[in-house]
Amino acid sequence: KGSKPHPHEGGADGVEAKGIAELPALHYREHLAKDLYYSMPITSVLFNGRSKFQSVQIFSTKHFGKVLVLDNKMQSAQSDECLYHESLVHPALLSHPHPEAVFIGGGGEGATLREVLRHKNVKRVVMVDIDQIAVKMCRDNLPEWNGGVYDDPRVEVIYDDAGKYLATSGERFDVVIMDISDPIEAGPGWVLYTKEFYQKLKRDSLREHGVLCTQSTACSVNMITEGFTVINQTLKKVFAHVCPYRIDIPSFGAPWGFHICSDNAEFLLSPDTPPGEIDELLEARLGADQIVKLKHYEGYAHRHMFSLSKYERLACEREKRLLSTDNPVFVE
């Protein structure tokens, strides 16, 4: 989910960074800001290579289990991927009265797909990811994330640009989930956060009662205005109803933000949705056999995620910038 690495940023290279003690030979470190980073020991390297689009690394680590790293940015960790993927998927699908057709932009680990397929009334899922190598490596090395999902007859996987597919396929969906990289200057994905993209998506790709969910970058105290607040303001210019939320993800080194959006408020979940109502919806949509497999999302977890703190609410209220093709805003 992360953005482009800063110069001299590590990976599994163990190169000593200026001004800090020498690190062990196998040590992953990642910059949270230009001069702020965290690091962790690697116990083994499962894959280390490059696709046409990015570097792809899969490690085993002491503290988080297996991890997926793309371009030196943590994408997913075995110990807490459930926090990200359950938060990304279930609020959006429960915000639609009867979601049958779902689009996933990105989602190479297969875990977003896994969570969507828990919903019994879903009949078709199209997952479009640009990087076939990354998807294959995840399928081969991270079965804990995606075991069996690619064999489900409801699934179609397409290796292409997600924005291009939505613009040219002519297909409409009940729920669109954008599980893509952050809006960075050097990457092609920033256009998928623009006002123009959201306007076209709403007009051409969403059915009646359609819901959009997108990951919305880090929202810690020191990073919330880099992307989260701008994405929030941009979505509010396109959709009548926008609900921001977030969850702390330890392997990302920061709380992580999301948005669900719709022009129909009747079914859209919010901070005011009673926990019991969430649990009843999960029971009806997933069934007991799937609810027991959830590790994070339920009624009280929903209330916690959607109840933004004072600094988060104020940061969103003060934001005036919009992300557009003429005036992009990039995450550092």
Question: Mind explaining what this structure looks like?
Answer:
- It catalyses: S-adenosyl 3-(methylsulfanyl)propylamine + spermidine = thermospermine + S-methyl-5'-thioadenosine + H(+).
- Residues 25-263 form the PABS domain.
- With 332 residues, this protein is α/β, with parallel strands linked by helices.
- It has one domain (81-318): 3-Layer(aba) Sandwich (Rossmann fold), CATH 3.40.50.
- 28% of the residues lie in helices and 29% in strands.
- The chain contains eleven helices and twelve strands.
- It has helices at residues 81-94, 111-116, 132-141, 143-146, 162-169, 195-204, 228-236, 275-285, 288-291, 299-306, 310-318, and strands spanning 27-33, 36-50, 55-61, 65-70, 73-77, 101-106, 124-129, 155-159, 173-179, 206-218, 241-249, 254-262.
- It has a seven-stranded mixed β-sheet, sandwiched between helices. A five-stranded antiparallel β-sheet has the order 1-2-3-4-5.
- Strand 11 (241-249) and strand 12 (254-262) form a beta hairpin.
- The longest helix is centred in the first third of the chain and has 14 residues, at 81-94.
- The radius of gyration is 19 Å and the shape is globular.
- It starts with 26 loop residues before the first strand and ends in a 14-residue tail after the last helix.
- 46% of the residues are buried.
- The model is unreliable at 2-10 and 13-21 (pLDDT under 50).
